Amino acid sequence: MSFPKGFLWGGAVAANQVEGAFNVGGKGLSVADVATFKKDLSVEDYAGHNHVSTEKIQYAMDHLTDDEFPKRRGIDFYHHYKEDIALFGEMGFKAFRMSIAWSRIFPTGEEEEPNEEGLTFYDNIFKELKKNGIEPIVTLSHYEMPLALAVKYNGWYDRKVVDCFLKFSKVCFERYKDYVKYWLTFNEIDSIVRHPFTTAGIIPDRCPEGKELEVIYQGLHHQFVASALVTKLCHEIIPGSQVGCMLTKLTCYPNTCKPDDVEKTLKRNLDNYFFADVQVFGKYPPLILKRFEREGIHIEMLPGDLEILAENTVDFVSFSYYMSLTEAVRTDQETTAGNTVMGVKNPYLPSTEWGWQIDPLGLKISLIELYDRYNKPLLIVENGMGTKDVLTEDGKVHDPYRIEYFKSHFKAMEAAIEEGVELFGYTSWAPIDLVSASTSQMSKRYGFIYVDQDDFGNGTLKRYKKDSFDWYKDVIATNGESLN
Ligand code: BG6
Description:
Layout (H helix, E strand, L loop, with lengths): L7 E5 L2 H4 L35 H9 L14 H14 L4 E5 L2 H4 L10 H16 L3 E7 L5 H7 L6 H17 L5 E5 L9 H5 L11 H26 L4 E7 L3 E3 L4 H23 L4 H9 L10 H7 L4 E5 L4 E3 L7 E3 L4 E3 L15 H15 L3 E5 L17 H19 L4 E7 L19 E3 L11 E3 L1 H11 L7
Helix pairs in contact: 3-5, 7-9, 9-12, 13-14
Bound molecules: 6-O-phosphono-beta-D-glucopyranose.
The site of 6-O-phosphono-beta-D-glucopyranose (BG6) has 16 residues, from loops.
Protein backbone atom coordinates (compact mmCIF):
# COMPACT_ATOMS: atom_id res chain seq x y z
CA MET A 1 0.00 0.00 0.00
CA SER A 2 1.53 3.32 -1.05
CA PHE A 3 -0.65 5.89 0.64
CA PRO A 4 0.41 6.12 4.28
CA LYS A 5 -1.99 5.08 7.02
CA GLY A 6 -4.07 8.05 8.12
CA PHE A 7 -3.63 9.82 4.77
CA LEU A 8 -5.86 12.92 4.82
CA TRP A 9 -8.15 12.41 1.82
CA GLY A 10 -10.71 15.18 1.40
CA GLY A 11 -11.77 18.32 -0.43
CA ALA A 12 -11.16 22.07 -0.29
CA VAL A 13 -13.24 25.22 -0.66
CA ALA A 14 -12.90 28.92 0.15
CA ALA A 15 -15.45 30.90 2.15
CA ASN A 16 -15.98 33.54 -0.53
CA GLN A 17 -16.76 30.94 -3.22
CA VAL A 18 -19.30 28.91 -1.26
CA GLU A 19 -20.84 30.69 1.71
CA GLY A 20 -22.94 33.37 0.04
CA ALA A 21 -24.98 35.25 2.70
CA PHE A 22 -22.75 38.26 2.06
CA ASN A 23 -24.95 40.56 4.14
CA VAL A 24 -26.14 38.09 6.75
CA GLY A 25 -24.99 37.60 10.35
CA GLY A 26 -23.21 40.95 10.57
CA LYS A 27 -20.73 40.20 7.78
CA GLY A 28 -18.97 43.17 6.22
CA LEU A 29 -18.20 43.55 2.51
CA SER A 30 -15.01 41.82 1.43
CA VAL A 31 -12.77 42.22 -1.61
CA ALA A 32 -14.46 39.12 -3.08
CA ASP A 33 -17.80 40.94 -3.03
CA VAL A 34 -16.49 43.27 -5.74
CA ALA A 35 -15.92 40.50 -8.33
CA THR A 36 -18.45 40.57 -11.14
CA PHE A 37 -19.49 37.84 -13.53
CA LYS A 38 -17.99 38.21 -16.96
CA LYS A 39 -20.18 36.74 -19.64
CA ASP A 40 -18.53 35.32 -22.76
CA LEU A 41 -15.03 35.78 -21.47
CA SER A 42 -12.38 34.53 -23.87
CA VAL A 43 -9.74 32.10 -22.62
CA GLU A 44 -7.02 34.72 -23.10
CA ASP A 45 -8.80 37.12 -20.77
CA TYR A 46 -8.91 34.75 -17.81
CA ALA A 47 -5.39 35.61 -16.80
CA GLY A 48 -5.89 39.32 -16.50
CA HIS A 49 -9.55 40.08 -16.06
CA ASN A 50 -9.42 40.37 -12.28
CA HIS A 51 -8.15 43.92 -12.49
CA VAL A 52 -10.11 46.25 -10.33
CA SER A 53 -10.36 50.04 -10.16
CA THR A 54 -11.49 52.56 -7.54
CA GLU A 55 -14.52 53.22 -9.75
CA LYS A 56 -15.50 49.52 -9.83
CA ILE A 57 -15.16 49.30 -6.06
CA GLN A 58 -17.39 52.32 -5.58
CA TYR A 59 -19.95 50.75 -7.92
CA ALA A 60 -19.87 47.53 -5.90
CA MET A 61 -20.33 49.42 -2.64
CA ASP A 62 -23.30 51.31 -4.10
CA HIS A 63 -25.03 48.14 -5.39
CA LEU A 64 -25.74 45.94 -2.43
CA THR A 65 -27.46 43.05 -4.20
CA ASP A 66 -25.98 39.83 -5.52
CA ASP A 67 -27.24 40.37 -9.10
CA GLU A 68 -23.91 41.02 -10.78
CA PHE A 69 -21.72 39.60 -8.02
CA PRO A 70 -21.92 35.78 -7.87
CA LYS A 71 -19.49 35.44 -4.97
CA ARG A 72 -22.03 37.26 -2.82
CA ARG A 73 -24.38 34.30 -3.22
CA GLY A 74 -21.83 31.44 -3.55
CA ILE A 75 -23.73 28.16 -3.29
CA ASP A 76 -25.39 29.27 -0.06
CA PHE A 77 -23.19 26.96 2.00
CA TYR A 78 -24.05 29.33 4.85
CA HIS A 79 -27.48 27.72 5.01
CA HIS A 80 -26.63 24.30 3.49
CA TYR A 81 -23.49 23.43 5.46
CA LYS A 82 -25.07 20.56 7.41
CA GLU A 83 -26.28 18.85 4.26
CA ASP A 84 -22.98 19.46 2.47
CA ILE A 85 -20.81 18.23 5.32
CA ALA A 86 -23.01 15.15 5.62
CA LEU A 87 -22.29 14.43 1.94
CA PHE A 88 -18.55 14.86 2.55
CA GLY A 89 -18.93 12.48 5.48
CA GLU A 90 -20.71 10.00 3.23
CA MET A 91 -17.75 10.12 0.84
CA GLY A 92 -15.57 9.22 3.82
CA PHE A 93 -13.62 12.49 3.96
CA LYS A 94 -10.83 12.51 6.48
CA ALA A 95 -10.16 16.23 5.98
CA PHE A 96 -11.92 19.35 4.78
CA ARG A 97 -9.99 22.46 3.82
CA MET A 98 -11.97 25.67 4.25
CA SER A 99 -11.31 29.30 5.04
CA ILE A 100 -12.69 31.66 7.63
CA ALA A 101 -14.10 34.86 6.14
CA TRP A 102 -12.21 37.61 7.95
CA SER A 103 -15.09 40.03 7.17
CA ARG A 104 -17.52 37.76 9.04
CA ILE A 105 -15.42 38.07 12.19
CA PHE A 106 -14.27 41.69 11.83
CA PRO A 107 -16.63 43.34 9.29
CA THR A 108 -14.33 46.28 8.61
CA GLY A 109 -11.17 44.75 10.05
CA GLU A 110 -10.83 47.42 12.72
CA GLU A 111 -13.55 46.71 15.28
CA GLU A 112 -12.40 46.31 18.87
CA GLU A 113 -14.47 43.19 19.40
CA PRO A 114 -15.18 40.30 17.00
CA ASN A 115 -18.65 39.67 15.63
CA GLU A 116 -20.11 36.89 17.77
CA GLU A 117 -22.54 35.74 15.08
CA GLY A 118 -19.68 35.14 12.68
CA LEU A 119 -17.72 33.20 15.28
CA THR A 120 -20.75 31.04 16.07
CA PHE A 121 -21.19 30.17 12.41
CA TYR A 122 -17.72 28.57 12.33
CA ASP A 123 -18.27 26.92 15.74
CA ASN A 124 -21.19 25.14 14.12
CA ILE A 125 -19.18 24.13 11.07
CA PHE A 126 -16.41 22.66 13.22
CA LYS A 127 -18.93 20.78 15.36
CA GLU A 128 -20.52 19.36 12.26
CA LEU A 129 -17.15 18.28 10.86
CA LYS A 130 -16.29 16.60 14.14
CA LYS A 131 -19.59 14.77 14.13
CA ASN A 132 -18.65 13.41 10.70
CA GLY A 133 -15.10 12.48 11.71
CA ILE A 134 -13.56 15.11 9.42
CA GLU A 135 -10.37 17.01 10.31
CA PRO A 136 -10.54 20.73 9.41
CA ILE A 137 -7.63 22.39 7.59
CA VAL A 138 -8.21 26.12 7.86
CA THR A 139 -6.88 28.91 5.66
CA LEU A 140 -6.90 32.29 7.39
CA SER A 141 -6.78 34.33 4.21
CA HIS A 142 -8.17 32.92 0.99
CA TYR A 143 -8.83 35.73 -1.49
CA GLU A 144 -10.90 37.56 1.10
CA MET A 145 -10.29 40.51 3.42
CA PRO A 146 -12.54 43.31 4.67
CA LEU A 147 -13.10 45.71 1.77
CA ALA A 148 -12.81 48.59 4.22
CA LEU A 149 -9.13 47.76 4.75
CA ALA A 150 -8.53 47.79 1.00
CA VAL A 151 -10.21 51.16 0.61
CA LYS A 152 -8.67 52.80 3.66
CA TYR A 153 -5.13 51.45 3.47
CA ASN A 154 -4.70 50.14 -0.08
CA GLY A 155 -4.78 46.70 1.49
CA TRP A 156 -1.63 44.95 2.61
CA TYR A 157 0.53 47.80 1.33
CA ASP A 158 0.02 49.44 4.72
CA ARG A 159 1.78 47.92 7.74
CA LYS A 160 -1.35 48.62 9.80
CA VAL A 161 -3.03 45.63 8.14
CA VAL A 162 -0.48 43.30 9.77
CA ASP A 163 -1.91 44.24 13.19
CA CYS A 164 -5.49 43.81 11.98
CA PHE A 165 -4.64 40.33 10.67
CA LEU A 166 -2.88 39.37 13.91
CA LYS A 167 -5.94 40.41 15.89
CA PHE A 168 -8.19 38.34 13.62
CA SER A 169 -5.89 35.31 13.74
CA LYS A 170 -5.57 35.43 17.53
CA VAL A 171 -9.34 35.42 17.89
CA CYS A 172 -9.56 32.40 15.57
CA PHE A 173 -6.85 30.46 17.40
CA GLU A 174 -8.35 31.13 20.83
CA ARG A 175 -11.87 30.34 19.76
CA TYR A 176 -11.21 27.24 17.65
CA LYS A 177 -8.19 25.74 19.41
CA ASP A 178 -10.08 22.62 20.42
CA TYR A 179 -11.18 21.94 16.88
CA VAL A 180 -8.43 22.95 14.49
CA LYS A 181 -4.88 21.61 14.40
CA TYR A 182 -3.90 22.38 10.77
CA TRP A 183 -3.71 26.02 9.66
CA LEU A 184 -2.60 27.75 6.47
CA THR A 185 -1.84 31.46 6.56
CA PHE A 186 -2.24 32.83 3.00
CA ASN A 187 -3.75 30.99 0.07
CA GLU A 188 -1.44 31.08 -2.97
CA ILE A 189 0.64 33.88 -1.48
CA ASP A 190 2.45 34.21 -4.84
CA SER A 191 -0.78 35.30 -6.53
CA ILE A 192 -0.30 38.83 -5.17
CA VAL A 193 1.73 39.60 -8.30
CA ARG A 194 -1.00 38.27 -10.61
CA HIS A 195 -4.08 39.76 -8.92
CA PRO A 196 -3.01 42.15 -6.15
CA PHE A 197 -6.56 43.20 -5.29
CA THR A 198 -8.07 39.73 -4.86
CA THR A 199 -5.07 38.53 -2.88
CA ALA A 200 -4.10 41.60 -0.90
CA GLY A 201 -6.64 44.39 -1.39
CA ILE A 202 -4.14 46.47 -3.40
CA ILE A 203 -5.94 48.74 -5.85
CA PRO A 204 -3.75 49.29 -8.92
CA ASP A 205 -4.94 52.85 -9.68
CA ARG A 206 -4.03 53.86 -6.13
CA CYS A 207 -0.38 52.97 -6.65
CA PRO A 208 2.05 55.75 -7.60
CA GLU A 209 2.80 55.79 -11.34
CA GLY A 210 5.38 53.15 -12.28
CA LYS A 211 5.51 51.86 -8.70
CA GLU A 212 2.81 49.20 -8.79
CA LEU A 213 5.33 46.39 -8.48
CA GLU A 214 7.05 48.05 -5.53
CA VAL A 215 3.68 48.43 -3.77
CA ILE A 216 2.92 44.77 -4.45
CA TYR A 217 6.24 43.53 -3.06
CA GLN A 218 5.84 45.81 -0.05
CA GLY A 219 2.40 44.25 0.55
CA LEU A 220 3.97 40.83 0.15
CA HIS A 221 6.64 41.66 2.72
CA HIS A 222 3.89 42.56 5.16
CA GLN A 223 2.19 39.25 4.44
CA PHE A 224 5.45 37.36 5.02
CA VAL A 225 5.92 39.09 8.38
CA ALA A 226 2.26 38.53 9.31
CA SER A 227 2.51 34.87 8.31
CA ALA A 228 5.58 34.38 10.52
CA LEU A 229 4.01 36.18 13.49
CA VAL A 230 0.81 34.21 13.10
CA THR A 231 2.77 30.94 12.95
CA LYS A 232 4.37 31.84 16.27
CA LEU A 233 1.02 32.79 17.78
CA CYS A 234 -0.59 29.58 16.60
CA HIS A 235 2.15 27.44 18.13
CA GLU A 236 1.79 29.33 21.42
CA ILE A 237 -1.99 29.19 21.63
CA ILE A 238 -2.54 25.69 20.20
CA PRO A 239 0.13 23.25 21.36
CA GLY A 240 0.79 20.62 18.70
CA SER A 241 -0.70 22.75 15.92
CA GLN A 242 0.83 22.65 12.45
CA VAL A 243 1.09 25.71 10.23
CA GLY A 244 1.77 25.57 6.51
CA CYS A 245 2.53 27.97 3.68
CA MET A 246 0.53 27.64 0.47
CA LEU A 247 2.02 28.03 -3.00
CA THR A 248 0.49 27.93 -6.47
CA LYS A 249 2.83 25.33 -7.95
CA LEU A 250 3.28 26.67 -11.45
CA THR A 251 5.51 23.92 -12.82
CA CYS A 252 7.08 25.19 -16.00
CA TYR A 253 9.02 23.27 -18.68
CA PRO A 254 11.29 24.73 -21.34
CA ASN A 255 9.37 24.69 -24.61
CA THR A 256 12.52 23.48 -26.38
CA CYS A 257 16.00 22.43 -25.27
CA LYS A 258 17.39 25.68 -26.64
CA PRO A 259 19.49 27.02 -23.74
CA ASP A 260 17.73 30.39 -23.92
CA ASP A 261 14.38 28.66 -23.30
CA VAL A 262 15.92 26.68 -20.46
CA GLU A 263 17.31 29.83 -18.86
CA LYS A 264 13.98 31.65 -19.14
CA THR A 265 12.21 28.65 -17.62
CA LEU A 266 14.69 28.41 -14.78
CA LYS A 267 14.04 32.05 -13.90
CA ARG A 268 10.29 31.58 -14.05
CA ASN A 269 10.45 28.56 -11.74
CA LEU A 270 12.76 30.36 -9.29
CA ASP A 271 10.34 33.29 -9.23
CA ASN A 272 7.62 30.83 -8.25
CA TYR A 273 9.69 29.14 -5.52
CA PHE A 274 10.68 32.47 -3.98
CA PHE A 275 7.35 32.79 -2.15
CA ALA A 276 7.65 29.45 -0.36
CA ASP A 277 11.42 29.83 0.10
CA VAL A 278 10.89 32.80 2.41
CA GLN A 279 8.42 30.91 4.57
CA VAL A 280 10.35 27.64 4.67
CA PHE A 281 13.96 28.89 4.86
CA GLY A 282 13.08 32.05 6.81
CA LYS A 283 14.91 34.47 4.52
CA TYR A 284 14.72 36.21 1.17
CA PRO A 285 16.68 34.36 -1.55
CA PRO A 286 19.82 36.42 -2.45
CA LEU A 287 18.97 36.32 -6.17
CA ILE A 288 15.61 37.93 -5.50
CA LEU A 289 17.17 40.69 -3.38
CA LYS A 290 19.60 41.36 -6.22
CA ARG A 291 16.70 41.49 -8.68
CA PHE A 292 14.86 44.01 -6.50
CA GLU A 293 18.00 46.13 -6.43
CA ARG A 294 18.41 45.92 -10.22
CA GLU A 295 14.78 46.84 -10.83
CA GLY A 296 14.76 49.67 -8.32
CA ILE A 297 12.28 47.96 -6.02
CA HIS A 298 12.78 49.23 -2.51
CA ILE A 299 11.13 47.38 0.35
CA GLU A 300 10.66 49.06 3.69
CA MET A 301 11.54 46.62 6.45
CA LEU A 302 11.30 47.38 10.15
CA PRO A 303 14.15 46.46 12.46
CA GLY A 304 13.51 42.91 13.60
CA ASP A 305 11.54 41.83 10.50
CA LEU A 306 14.30 39.56 9.21
CA GLU A 307 14.60 37.91 12.63
CA ILE A 308 10.84 37.36 12.73
CA LEU A 309 11.04 35.58 9.35
CA ALA A 310 14.05 33.52 10.42
CA GLU A 311 12.59 32.41 13.73
CA ASN A 312 9.11 31.41 12.62
CA THR A 313 9.22 29.12 9.62
CA VAL A 314 6.39 26.81 8.60
CA ASP A 315 5.87 23.18 9.65
CA PHE A 316 4.77 21.89 6.27
CA VAL A 317 4.39 22.99 2.66
CA SER A 318 1.00 22.97 1.00
CA PHE A 319 0.29 23.80 -2.61
CA SER A 320 -2.23 23.86 -5.42
CA TYR A 321 -1.50 22.07 -8.65
CA TYR A 322 -3.78 22.15 -11.67
CA MET A 323 -1.60 22.16 -14.75
CA SER A 324 1.87 22.81 -16.09
CA LEU A 325 3.13 25.49 -18.45
CA THR A 326 5.95 25.91 -20.90
CA GLU A 327 8.21 28.89 -21.46
CA ALA A 328 10.01 30.08 -24.60
CA VAL A 329 11.95 33.11 -25.74
CA ARG A 330 10.12 33.14 -29.06
CA THR A 331 7.00 35.25 -28.71
CA ASP A 332 5.05 34.05 -31.76
CA GLN A 333 3.94 30.72 -30.27
CA GLU A 334 0.43 29.66 -29.38
CA THR A 335 -0.32 30.38 -25.74
CA THR A 336 -2.63 28.68 -23.31
CA ALA A 337 -4.40 29.85 -20.19
CA GLY A 338 -3.84 28.48 -16.71
CA ASN A 339 -4.47 29.36 -13.11
CA THR A 340 -4.47 33.14 -13.80
CA VAL A 341 -1.23 32.75 -15.74
CA MET A 342 -0.41 32.29 -19.40
CA GLY A 343 2.16 29.95 -20.88
CA VAL A 344 3.26 28.64 -24.24
CA LYS A 345 1.13 25.70 -25.31
CA ASN A 346 2.57 22.24 -24.70
CA PRO A 347 1.84 20.10 -27.79
CA TYR A 348 2.01 16.88 -25.76
CA LEU A 349 -0.83 17.69 -23.39
CA PRO A 350 -4.61 17.93 -23.67
CA SER A 351 -6.43 20.99 -22.28
CA THR A 352 -9.66 21.59 -20.38
CA GLU A 353 -12.34 23.76 -21.97
CA TRP A 354 -10.77 26.67 -20.09
CA GLY A 355 -7.39 26.01 -21.66
CA TRP A 356 -5.65 24.56 -18.58
CA GLN A 357 -3.31 21.81 -19.76
CA ILE A 358 -3.76 18.47 -18.01
CA ASP A 359 -0.48 16.99 -16.82
CA PRO A 360 -0.56 14.31 -14.10
CA LEU A 361 3.13 13.54 -14.48
CA GLY A 362 3.69 17.23 -13.77
CA LEU A 363 2.18 16.60 -10.33
CA LYS A 364 4.73 13.88 -9.63
CA ILE A 365 7.49 16.18 -10.86
CA SER A 366 6.18 18.96 -8.62
CA LEU A 367 6.06 16.71 -5.57
CA ILE A 368 9.62 15.56 -6.13
CA GLU A 369 10.87 19.10 -6.73
CA LEU A 370 9.16 20.48 -3.63
CA TYR A 371 10.23 17.66 -1.35
CA ASP A 372 13.80 17.74 -2.58
CA ARG A 373 13.99 21.51 -2.14
CA TYR A 374 12.29 21.83 1.23
CA ASN A 375 12.53 18.43 2.98
CA LYS A 376 9.23 19.22 4.65
CA PRO A 377 6.02 17.18 4.76
CA LEU A 378 3.81 18.09 1.80
CA LEU A 379 0.06 18.58 1.55
CA ILE A 380 -1.79 18.98 -1.74
CA VAL A 381 -4.62 21.37 -0.92
CA GLU A 382 -6.00 22.00 -4.40
CA ASN A 383 -6.15 19.93 -7.56
CA GLY A 384 -9.06 19.34 -9.89
CA MET A 385 -10.68 20.04 -13.22
CA GLY A 386 -13.27 22.67 -14.15
CA THR A 387 -15.78 21.40 -16.71
CA LYS A 388 -19.24 22.09 -18.04
CA ASP A 389 -21.15 19.20 -16.45
CA VAL A 390 -24.65 18.29 -17.55
CA LEU A 391 -27.44 17.27 -15.21
CA THR A 392 -29.42 14.63 -17.11
CA GLU A 393 -33.17 14.20 -16.85
CA ASP A 394 -32.83 11.30 -14.43
CA GLY A 395 -31.02 13.59 -12.00
CA LYS A 396 -27.55 12.21 -12.76
CA VAL A 397 -24.26 13.72 -13.84
CA HIS A 398 -21.97 11.41 -15.78
CA ASP A 399 -18.43 12.71 -15.44
CA PRO A 400 -15.99 10.01 -16.59
CA TYR A 401 -13.52 12.78 -17.57
CA ARG A 402 -13.31 13.88 -13.93
CA ILE A 403 -12.69 10.31 -12.75
CA GLU A 404 -9.99 9.99 -15.39
CA TYR A 405 -8.39 13.27 -14.30
CA PHE A 406 -8.30 12.34 -10.62
CA LYS A 407 -7.22 8.76 -11.26
CA SER A 408 -4.19 9.84 -13.25
CA HIS A 409 -3.24 12.43 -10.63
CA PHE A 410 -3.66 9.97 -7.75
CA LYS A 411 -1.43 7.49 -9.58
CA ALA A 412 1.16 10.25 -9.91
CA MET A 413 0.95 10.91 -6.16
CA GLU A 414 1.34 7.21 -5.46
CA ALA A 415 4.42 7.06 -7.65
CA ALA A 416 5.97 10.06 -5.89
CA ILE A 417 5.29 8.51 -2.48
CA GLU A 418 6.93 5.28 -3.66
CA GLU A 419 10.01 7.30 -4.55
CA GLY A 420 10.15 8.66 -1.01
CA VAL A 421 8.14 11.88 -1.03
CA GLU A 422 6.46 12.58 2.31
CA LEU A 423 2.90 13.47 1.33
CA PHE A 424 0.37 13.40 4.16
CA GLY A 425 -2.85 14.49 2.53
CA TYR A 426 -4.83 15.59 -0.48
CA THR A 427 -7.87 17.85 -0.67
CA SER A 428 -9.44 18.11 -4.12
CA TRP A 429 -10.65 21.39 -5.52
CA ALA A 430 -13.49 21.37 -5.02
CA PRO A 431 -15.67 18.58 -3.66
CA ILE A 432 -18.81 20.54 -4.52
CA ASP A 433 -19.52 22.94 -7.41
CA LEU A 434 -18.83 26.55 -6.43
CA VAL A 435 -18.27 29.99 -7.91
CA SER A 436 -15.03 30.21 -9.88
CA ALA A 437 -12.34 32.41 -8.35
CA SER A 438 -11.08 33.79 -11.66
CA THR A 439 -14.25 34.12 -13.72
CA SER A 440 -17.06 34.09 -11.11
CA GLN A 441 -18.74 31.46 -13.26
CA MET A 442 -20.85 28.71 -11.77
CA SER A 443 -20.69 26.79 -15.05
CA LYS A 444 -17.02 25.98 -14.45
CA ARG A 445 -17.76 22.99 -12.26
CA TYR A 446 -15.25 21.13 -10.11
CA GLY A 447 -17.32 19.06 -7.68
CA PHE A 448 -18.19 15.45 -6.98
CA ILE A 449 -21.48 17.08 -6.03
CA TYR A 450 -23.49 19.07 -8.56
CA VAL A 451 -25.24 22.24 -7.40
CA ASP A 452 -28.30 23.31 -9.34
CA GLN A 453 -27.49 26.95 -9.98
CA ASP A 454 -26.43 28.73 -13.17
CA ASP A 455 -24.11 31.67 -13.79
CA PHE A 456 -26.93 34.12 -13.11
CA GLY A 457 -28.05 32.62 -9.83
CA ASN A 458 -31.06 30.73 -11.25
CA GLY A 459 -31.71 27.25 -9.87
CA THR A 460 -32.98 25.32 -6.88
CA LEU A 461 -29.56 24.96 -5.19
CA LYS A 462 -30.38 21.27 -4.86
CA ARG A 463 -27.33 19.02 -4.54
CA TYR A 464 -26.86 15.92 -6.78
CA LYS A 465 -24.17 13.25 -6.58
CA LYS A 466 -22.13 12.93 -9.77
CA ASP A 467 -20.73 9.54 -10.85
CA SER A 468 -17.36 10.64 -9.46
CA PHE A 469 -18.90 10.83 -5.96
CA ASP A 470 -19.00 7.05 -5.48
CA TRP A 471 -15.71 6.62 -7.27
CA TYR A 472 -13.90 8.97 -4.84
CA LYS A 473 -15.68 7.33 -1.92
CA ASP A 474 -14.14 4.02 -2.98
CA VAL A 475 -10.66 5.50 -3.32
CA ILE A 476 -10.89 6.88 0.21
CA ALA A 477 -12.39 3.71 1.70
CA THR A 478 -9.53 1.63 0.31
CA ASN A 479 -6.86 4.30 0.94
CA GLY A 480 -6.07 4.31 -2.76
CA GLU A 481 -6.03 0.52 -3.27
CA SER A 482 -9.04 0.72 -5.61
CA LEU A 483 -6.89 2.66 -8.09
CA ASN A 484 -5.07 -0.54 -8.85
C1 BG6 B 1 -6.90 28.41 -7.07
C2 BG6 B 1 -7.65 29.17 -6.01
O1 BG6 B 1 -6.00 29.24 -7.63
O2 BG6 B 1 -7.63 27.95 -8.16
C3 BG6 B 1 -9.11 28.79 -5.87
O3 BG6 B 1 -7.01 29.04 -4.77
C4 BG6 B 1 -9.70 28.66 -7.25
O4 BG6 B 1 -9.75 29.75 -5.08
C5 BG6 B 1 -8.98 27.55 -8.00
O5 BG6 B 1 -11.08 28.44 -7.27
C6 BG6 B 1 -9.54 27.26 -9.37
O6 BG6 B 1 -9.58 28.43 -10.12
P1 BG6 B 1 -10.91 28.93 -10.84
O7 BG6 B 1 -10.58 30.25 -11.35
O8 BG6 B 1 -11.22 27.92 -11.86
O9 BG6 B 1 -11.95 28.97 -9.76
